[in-house]
Each structure stands twice: as structure tokens, then as C-alpha cells.
Specification:
Pentatricopeptide repeat-containing protein, Serine Threonine Protein Phosphatase 5, Tetratricopeptide repeat, 550 residues, disordered C terminus, repeat, PPR_rpt
Length: 550
């Protein structure tokens, strides 16, 4: 770092030399040594950027650069600015040269600096600089304006982008629909559907923002996602008044939203309207949405009618279509039809996936047909389709209901070797429950240990099952430890846990633990109360046979 005195001398010398170089004769002589280049300008720019970087303050930089004002052309200032190490320094030099040195900046100086500011995340400064550029009378093409808007979108600065889009139209710039739609998408993805709706409404009919069918589709999809179907239908009707023709994507979004809101008949009416309109042809997504909606509310006859209608229209069902129907029939226990659809799926050349097999297994398990469920399980493995967590849960739950806890336990061991399946408490709970009911609480504790080793957090059902299991074996100290572990983990016991545990503690001579539970429950402001000890009556006929000695 140069001291102030030598630096001042350096600046004075530079000023004299630069003023000489500024004379036309000297400039021509200097340039003659390197045809096609401007070495004088480059040397001046290097000196200017060095002086600016070494000045301790803005005022000091202005004072030291002031003698060079006669030679500071806009192009030299632009070159100097490009030599600075970061966007903040460049912005500081820009304003210094603009205010203190009275430099009129080139359009490329503005655009270069705005681009740098965007890359550095300084979008507020970039937008402010764009406004100054426009007020200076400089113009850029629409693509640069779209670049600045897109940069704000991608940085998540949607409020700034909204203000920029609203303000920039006064300068006569027109945004293409791509940019406008990207902005709407950014708002919807960040759960700001209301802001997107307001912005579209404000700009309908605007000559500066191009609104198209995709714009409406984005808004309608966002409204359907939050369940505001009335407003979605309002925009659907507005489309035609705005000279935007709904396409099949529009209809699919609207039908899917209606079906997910259990307004399937209304969605079906729209499908029938599309079928009569030759301008728009329903596709597999359209039909599958209606089929899924009917399956969801248990109207399988209507779902199958739409399926037949789909085949008749020459639309090939997808794997999702078959899966939806198979799952629907499986939940109702109609396995013959579910298997028939599965076979038809294979004939159509549509390979089954884990959802297909899980739906079949779940259907058989619901019907109590464990052997058939296990045949599907074996077929699934033969086709090298890996079961997911829900598949394991369905089979394990059914095995435990059939008192085949040992087989369920073996499946858990298979699951423990699958690192691609995230373990969930609902998969383990049936096995723990089955082991506790059979009196094998030690093995149940081992399953709990496995859960924790796999970082699977036990839920209130896991703890309640273990507490009841230990109480039934008379292992009250362990039950108390499990309850304490439950509380420490942040899992609040429910009425079932408390209503069972408190009488067991009372009968086993643990009044102090009852008071601790009572204190805990009252501190959590739960919606149930533990009765006073004298209010708890345990008729002999209903007493649990719990031996404290064990």
C-alpha cells in the first residue's frame, strides 16, 4: 500500500502525463506503435482503476481522480470499471464518475454493471441502475429486460420482480409470454397464488405483457392446488373473453382439481363437453383423472364405464390408469376384477410396477387371503420389482393379524438389509404389538432397538404398545422407563396410554409415578385429566393380574 505522500506525487505525475497523452498528436504517436489498438486509453484506464482502489475513501478517490477529468472519456471509464475486482467496487466507481467527475456513461457500461450486480445477488442495485439508465434515455432490447426480470425470479426476489415488471412498462418495453409465465410460476411454486392471481388480473389486456393460454393454466393449476375451485372456474371462463383458447392441458388441470375435491361428476361433465368439441381431444391424463376420482369415492362402476369409454375412443390406458383401477377394486375386496385388470395390463404390454403389486397384495390382505397375497409377493420378486416401505407394511400387518408374528419378524430382518427403504414406525408397530401380546417383550425390545439403530423414531403407538406389554408381564419398572423415554422424546401420551397405565401403577404400588404423570399431563394442557387417586376404582372382576414380583 502506497503512503499518501508518494501516492499524491504519483497522481500528480500521472495527471501531467495523461494530459499530454490526451493531445491528438501524442495520442497518434503513441498509437502508432501498436496498430489497431488504443494503448493510451488502456494505460489511462489502468491508472484510474488503480487510483480508485487505493484511495481510502470515496471523497479521497474523487479528489485524486479530479485532475484526470479532461482525459476521462466514457469509453475509458467503462474500461476502468471492467478492471475492478468486484461488483460493489464497480458500482461505487460508477456513481463516483457519474456525480463527481460528470461522466456520461455509455449504454454498455450500464448493461455490463447490471449483469455483474445480478450475478453477485445485488438485484436491488441492478433494478435501481436500470431505472437510471432508462431515465438517461438509453434503451436496450427486450431480451436484456427479460434477463433482469428472470434473474430476480431465480433469486426468489419476487416482490422486487413484481415492482420491476409493473414499472418497466412505462418505458415501452414488452415482455414475451415466456417471461411473464415464468414469473407466475415462481409465485405459485412459492405458495403465493393470491399474488399471482392479482398480478394477472391487473395485466389482462395490457399491451406490455403478453398473456396466453399457458398464463391461465398456471393460475388455474395454482388455484386448484389450494382448493379454490370457484376462482379457478372464473379464470377458465375469463380465458375465452381474453381471446385465449383453453387447450387439453387447461381441461386436464381443471378436471384433476375437481376430482381431487370429490366433485367427480362435475369433472365428468367437462370431459363430456370436450368429447363434443372437435377442437380439443381428451388424452390418457383426462380419462385417468376421472377414473381416479371415481375410484377414490368408491364408485367403481362409473370408473369402469369411463375406462370402457376411453378404450372405445382409441386412447391407450397407461400404467397409472391400470394401477388406479386395480387399487380401487382391491380396496373393495373385488379381487377377481382386480386380477382381471392386472392380466389385461400385461396383455397390453404395460409392465407392472411396485404400485401395481402393492395394490394387489393390499387387496388380498384386506380380504384375508394371505396365501394369495404371498403369491403376488413372490411374483413381484421374480419380476425383480423391489417392494417399498408400504408393501412391507401391508404384508407385515396381515401376517401379524394371522398370528404369524415369526414370519413378520423375518420380513423385518429383510427390510433391515434394504438401505433404499426409509423405515417408518407404522411398519414395526404390528410386530412389536404381536410380540407383546404373545408375552415376548424381550424380543419386542429388540425390535425397538433395531428401529433406533436405523434412526426410525418410535411414535406414540410404539411406546403405548410397549408400556402395555410390560405392564401385562408385571415389569412395571421397565414400563415406567419406557413412559419416561416417551416423554423425553417429545412424544405426548394419549388417553389410551394414560387410562391403561395409571390403574396398573396404582395396583402395583407406584403412587409417586402417578403424580409425575399427572404433573406432566397438566403441564401439557391436554384435553383430558387424570382422576385423583381416591377416585380410581378397580373392581376385582376387572383388575389386571399384574405381579409386581416378576
Amino acid at each position: 500500500m502506497l503512503s499518501h505522500a508518494p501516492l499524491h506525487h504519483f497522481v500528480s505525475c500521472c495527471s501531467r502525463n495523461l494530459l499530454l497523452l490526451a493531445r491528438p498528436a501524442h495520442r497518434r504517436l503513441f498509437a502508432a506503435s501498436a496498430p489497431g489498438s488504443e494503448p493510451a486509453d488502456l494505460w489511462i484506464a489502468k491508472v484510474v482503476s488503480t487510483i480508485f482502489q487505493r484511495a481510502p475513501t470515496h471523497a479521497a478517490a474523487a479528489a485524486r481522480l479530479s485532475p484526470l477529468r479532461p482525459v476521462l472519456s466514457p469509453s475509458i471509464v467503462f474500461t476502468s470499471l471492467r478492471r475492478l475486482p468486484d461488483s460493489s467496487s464497480a458500482l461505487g466507481f460508477f456513481y463516483l464518475s457519474r456525480s463527481d467527475l460528470a461522466v456520461v456513461h455509455l449504454p454498455q457500461t450500464f448493461t455490463f454493471l447490471i449483469s455483474c450486480l445480478c450475478r453477485s445477488g445485488l438485484h436491488e442495485d441492478a433494478v435501481k441502475l436500470f431505472d437510471e439508465m432508462a431515465r438517461d434515455g438509453h434503451t436496450v432490447d427486450d431480451s436484456f429486460v427479460e434477463f433482469l426480470a428472470n434473474s430476480c425470479f431465480e433469486a426468489g426476489k419476487l416482490d422486487l420482480a413484481t415492482a420491476f415488471l409493473a414499472a418497466v412498462s412505462k418505458y415501452g418495453y414488452r415482455f414475451q409470454s415466456y417471461t411473464f409465465n415464468k414469473f407466475l410460476t415462481s409465485l405459485v411454486r412459492r405458495d403465493r397464488v393470491g399474488d399471482a392471481v392479482l398480478f394477472l388480473r391487473q395485466n389482462l389486456g395490457s399491451q406490455f405483457l403478453a398473456v396466453d393460454t399457458c398464463s391461465f393454466n398456471i393460475i388455474i393449476k395454482g388455484l386448484c392446488r389450494i382448493g379454490d375451485l370457484d376462482t379457478a372456474l372464473e379464470f377458465f371462463n375469463q380465458m375465452q373473453r381474453s381471446c385465449c383458447v383453453p387447450d387439453i392441458v387447461t381441461y386436464n388441470i381443471l378436471i384433476d382439481g375437481l376430482c381431487k375435491a370429490d366433485q367427480v361428476d362435475r369433472g365428468h361433465e367437462i370431459l363430456q363437453k370436450i368429447q363434443l368439441d372437435s377442437a380439443c381431444v381428451p388424452n390418457v391424463v383426462t380419462y385417468t383423472s376421472i377414473i381416479s376420482g371415481y375410484c377414490k369415492i368408491g364408485k367403481m362402476e362409473e370408473a369402469y364405464e369411463v375406462f370402457d369409454d376411453m378404450i372405445g375412443a382409441g386412447v391407450k390406458p397407461s400404467r397409472v390408469t391400470f394401477n388406479v383401477l386395480i387399487n380401487g377394486y382391491g380396496k373393495l375386496g373385488n379381487m377377481p376384477l382386480a386380477i382381471s385388470l392386472y392380466e389385461r395390463m400385461l396383455i397390453c404390454g404395460c409392465p407392472p410396477d411396485v404400485v401395481t403389486f402393492t395394490s394387489l397384495i393390499n387387496g388380498y390382505c384386506r380380504s384375508g387371503q394371505l396365501d394369495d397375497a404371498m403369491k403376488i409377493w413372490d411374483e413381484m420378486n421374480q419380476k425383480e420389482v423391489k417392494p417399498n416401505g408400504y408393501t412391507f407394511a401391508v404384508v407385515i400387518h396381515c401376517l401379524c393379524r394371522k398370528n404369524k408374528v415369526g414370519d413378520a419378524r423375518n420380513l423385518l430382518k429383510v427390510l433391515s438389509r434394504r438401505r433404499d427403504v426409509v423405515p417408518q414406525a407404522f411398519i414395526y408397530n404390528p410386530v412389536i404389538d404381536g410380540l407383546c401380546k404373545s408375552g415376548n417383550v424381550d424380543e419386542a425390545n429388540s425390535v425397538l432397538l433395531e428401529m433406533e439403530e436405523r434412526r426410525c423414531t418410535p411414535d406414540k403407538y410404539t411406546y403405548t404398545i410397549l408400556i402395555i406389554g410390560h405392564c401385562m408381564k408385571g415389569r412395571m419398572f421397565e414400563a415406567v422407563e419406557i413412559f419416561q423415554k416417551m416423554v423425553d422424546s417429545g412424544c405426548t401420551p394419549d388417553r389410551i396410554t394414560v387410562d391403561f397405565f395409571v390403574p396398573c401403577l396404582l395396583k402395583s404400588g407406584f403412587p409417586h409415578e402417578i403424580n409425575k404423570i399427572k404433573s406432566f399431563i397438566s403441564g401439557r394442557s391436554s384435553n383430558f385429566e387424570i382422576p385423583d387417586l381416591q377416585d380410581i376404582h378397580l373392581p376385582i372382576g376387572k383388575c389386571l393380574d399384574i405381579s409386581v414380583a416378576i
